[in-house]
């Protein structure tokens, strides 16, 4: 269902956000592209903007700030995986070959989180909800519809995410090189190797946003100075395109084909 009213089971992608050098420009770009509402937030959280669709949160946009003398983070969309205990998950992440980018931290009263890198080099976040559980609208135009791990080593990634977050990698019967990510028997995302990507592409989590018309959204994004990375193409699951926003954030858009819920 598009509206999420129950907690995300541990291991499920529950939120995405973007860190951008020019916060207001990023807010304006995505607000115009996807019909989001939202504005720069309080200084207490660095201006982090909670973007909403039909009055419900769908994604975050924050400022890319240097911390402790380190360079600012790259402009990327980050996928957050839900947990009911961030500290215990952090311990599992490091025990299974992952690296914490920052220690577990409180985010006001809304939750606890940490960013990490899996053993294949893909960056992800972990979110423990307190007052905020994550996206409240998914799988409809303007909201996240799919989170996908693209990795240098599917076998190593599968072992890591299973041990750290309880995520199972299940090969698709008609496309065994592609894996469904499953939590408690329910598909929550996908994973694949980097064979279809340009040489040198690093491991990463990709964010797919649903749209009503892939071609018109691509045209609007390009007019707003985005770069087209993968032109619209029909696939078994829908019409997909890849874009890079004006500040370098890469994301996917898809007009999904109708499907029957299992």
Number of helices: 4
The number of E-state strands comes to 16
Number of domains: 2
CATH 4th-level superfamily of the largest domain: 2,3-Dihydroxybiphenyl 1,2-Dioxygenase, domain 1
**Backbone structural class:** alpha+beta
Query: What is the C-alpha radius of gyration, as a whole number of Å?
Result: 17 Å
Largest sheet: 8 strands, mixed
CATH architecture descriptor of the largest domain: Roll
CATH topology of the largest domain: 2,3-Dihydroxybiphenyl 1,2-Dioxygenase, domain 1
Textual characterization of the structure:
With 262 residues, the protein is an alpha+beta fold. The protein folds into 2 domains: 13-65 and 72-129, 2,3-Dihydroxybiphenyl 1,2-Dioxygenase, domain 1 (Roll), CATH 3.10.180.10; 144-256, Roll (2,3-Dihydroxybiphenyl 1,2-Dioxygenase, domain 1). It has 4 helices and 16 strands. The model has no long low-confidence stretch (mean pLDDT 94).
